[in-house]
Amino acid sequence: MLDAKFLRDHVDLVRRGLARKKFSVNIDAVLAADEARRHAVAEFEVARSAQNAANKEMAAMPKGTPEFQAKVLAMKTASAQVKELEKKVAEAEEQWKVAALTLPNVPHDSVPEGRTEADNQVVLTWGDEATLVSSAAKPHWDIPWFSKAIDFERGVKVTGAGFPFYVGDMARLVRALIQYFLEEAGSAGYTEVHAPLLVNAASATATGQLPDKEGQMYHTPTDDFYLIPTAEVPVTNYFRDEIIDEAALPVKRCGYTPCFRREAGSWGAHVRGLNRLHQFDKVELVKWVHPDQSFAELELLRGDAERLLQKLNLPYRVLLICAGDIGFAHSKQYDLEVWAGGQKRWLEVSSCSNFTDFQARRAGIRFRPKDGKPEYVHTLNGSGLGLPRVLAAILENNLQPDGTVRIPEVLRRWYGKETLSL
RNA sequence: GGAGAGAUGGCAGAGUGGUCGAUUGCGCAGCAUUGGAAAUGCUGUGUACCGCAAGGUACCGAGGGUUCGAAUCCCUCUCUCUCCGCCA
């Protein structure tokens, strides 16, 4: 959500930004709603002010006198009018809010022009596939023992498509990855939180999943909760409607959670195996920072995510997402893609984003400057990392000619062995 | 699930229809005092919206109602606590 005043004062800037994002939004309708809202407020407040003055007078008058009775009578109609005006204010405010929620965040100047993912810029490529990817590489679903270690069929029976079981050493490897990601995040200064997996509608609205992405979340109708599509939702909402001490900034949190995504449609070759699931595990990194620091903090966040892949010895590249492909709430976004040597494809394993004050405004997360009024913080988040595709890259890139998979050094502390086989 | 109690400012805690955005205490900030500090005293200390400003309006868990007027009365909901039951 954009600030009403900011929009009023910087219409052209917003118009330009949204054009860059290829969003066709009716800014004039939002401006008109704002105008109507302010008009209604002014009208109501004049009437209310008069009513308050009259009531103050009546409080001092002796009750029961004819004068008092006359005043009561006169104020009856005034009171009814005030109520009418108050109703109009509520309606105008609601209409403005609905309109304002349709406005996406404005992309940062450093975000390149572009329309689709084809226009994203490759910022850097790390690692050498010639040395880092085994010659035995093949798509992970073609590894002979794959369906025993990650059992999709049993998942279909128990739940449905996209809910696999991880069995034996594979389950252990999943756990090792979670441990590794959390330990690394802890060393980088992120405080670990273990968050609720179901959230209410207010939380889902604050982080931007509602209202427009409702169909992508699982919903529990009895209690009206949503299964989280990412830890970003509960972790960011931790500070919803709060004022954080300026001295505490930047606040850095990490959290491991399963994530649930309905992801209607688009099942096919690109989404086989571990490439896309309805339930998957992820460690998320979240930061609340001073507005002056948010773009510098984005670079640090990206670095934190990159280091995880480097230590796993997985080749990857970093994309700077173009204005047309960037998310609704995002001001600037980097995607990290790991090289899956068997599929010979880049798989997105992290999306690191600066939301500037867009999300903080929806969520009401502010800080108090040394001298002055509370201001909105800037929020950032990024995966650190999503498990299944990292797992896919490990299985494919590290597959040995004998059919076993070499486990990256950094995971052995928790995995306990050097290889995975069945 | 049953019964009861409660929700007020950063915290504690008054207020049961009008002059209450709200007594007081603690905390916090500034000033005085001091060689410096503690103690003490004084002053100040919420947020949002409208307005160029002066100023105005709203907010006592949320939403509705009664009334000329609601923190205060009524209804609904949410949450917290205590006891009982059930349970990982």
Largest sheet: number of strands, sense, barrel closure: 8 strands, mixed
Q: Report the portion of residues in β strands.
A: 15-25%
What is the CA-CA span between the terminal residues? 51 Å
Stretches where pLDDT is under 50 for at least 5 consecutive residues are none
**Class computed from helices, strands and strand pairing:** alpha+beta
Q: What is the CATH C-level name of the largest domain?
A: Alpha Beta
Shape: elongated
Overall pLDDT: 91
Please give the radius of gyration in angstroms. 27 Å
Architecture per CATH nomenclature, i.e. the level-2 architecture of the largest domain:
2-Layer Sandwich
The beta-strand count equals 18
Task: Provide a brief overview of the structure.
The protein is α+β, with helices and mostly antiparallel strands. Helices cover 40% and strands 21% of the residues.
Plain-language structure description:
- There is one protein chain.
- The protein has 422 residues and is α+β, with helices and mostly antiparallel strands.
- The protein folds into two domains: 4-100, Serine-tRNA synthetase, tRNA binding domain (Helix Hairpins, Orthogonal Bundle), CATH 1.10.287.40; 117-420, BirA Bifunctional Protein, domain 2 (2-Layer Sandwich).
- 40% of the residues lie in helices and 21% in strands.
- The protein has 14 helices and 18 strands.
- It has helices at 4-9, 11-20, 27-60, 66-100, 129-132, 146-149, 152-158, 169-187, 201-206, 232-237, 294-311, 358-363, 387-397, 412-415, and strands at residues 121-126, 150-151, 165-166, 191-193, 198-199, 219-220, 225-227, 242-245, 251-260, 279-289, 316-320, 332-340, 345-354, 365-368, 375-376, 378-386, 405-406, 419-420.
- Helix 3 packs antiparallel against helix 4 (66-100).
- The protein binds one RNA strand of 88 nucleotides through residues 4, 38, 41-42, 44-46, 48-49, 51-52, 54-56, 58-60, 68, 71-76, 78-79, 93, 243, 373-374.
